[in-house]
Design a protein that fits this description.
GO terms for molecular function: porin activity. The protein contains three helices and 17 strands. The protein is mainly beta. The protein has one domain: Beta Barrel (Porin).
Amino acid sequence: MKREIVIGSIALAFCSHAVAQTSSVTMYGVIDGFLEYTNTGTHTTARMGSSGLYGSRWGLKGIENLGGGLKAGFVLEQGFNISNGTAADPARQFNRQAYVSLSKDNVGELRFGRQTSPMFFSEGQLDAFLGASIASGLNNLSDYTVRTDNTVAYISPAIAGVSTELYYGFGTTGNGLTGANASYQAALRYIRNRVYLTAVYQAVKNATNTDTLRSTYFGGHYDFDHVTAYLAFHTAKLGSANIERQVVSTSVRWNFSPVASVSLGYTYQHDRSGRGNNAQQVGLLTQYFLSKATQLYAAAAFLDNRKAATNTLMGAATAGIPLDYSGANARGVQFGITHFF
């Protein structure tokens, strides 16, 4: 009995010390649901879905101050479907993010684990539609890997507005860049006053380790106070799937009141494989905030597919409704509610 008490006392003292050092552990999340009405060639589909403008998720984020500007942290984040209450990926406990980190002021941050790619973050900054909703042609016509496993990342501090990010993913076999799903990524950003510029590169091996998807993003946005203009250039190449494309997107967001905005954009995809499967899209999005935590949104889009192109109107974290035939055009409207907590 005495031995158990001593061990318990030591454990309690250790836990008390840990609690004293911990700055915070925060639970957060987003719940997004929508109604959609989309024509995919020969018929129209009405559906309710999850993750239209934002991916529905919940997560835990922790930071511990270790002294001298050194901090330990972690993020655990899981997506879910509000339509039926299921996990977005039943095979994973935390499908969106799961990493531990160390950071130090003026040195940067080091992360280990499953992480969201810098391509994803850049897309949201290069698009008036946040790279989401059916209105985003940039989202619908781009090709890259959103998240990578077994990834080591370094995020530098910003110096004169310039920062860099480096990601190295060991894939699913642990053989580095020679293994399946291995990856490497790099990002360069410039953020100063009203200007945002970025260049991102990503290379991810496929699951069979027979080819590599290589993708890039270049572009930026400029804030004119109530109006923000966006320009993006994207490339993607995967030989085994006959994917070789260039995408150019331009969009603008007008904040016509403190709680409301409207966005309009055009995106063109050029198929460089020689098959002529080009595509273009026009999108419109309106957002209205009922409070700091709750917003309504409405989106509309027309997607023009050429020849055998099979692009669809997707959401933030939901697949688009399949086309009735290759080369069919897609047009739709979407109405949704988003709540942040």
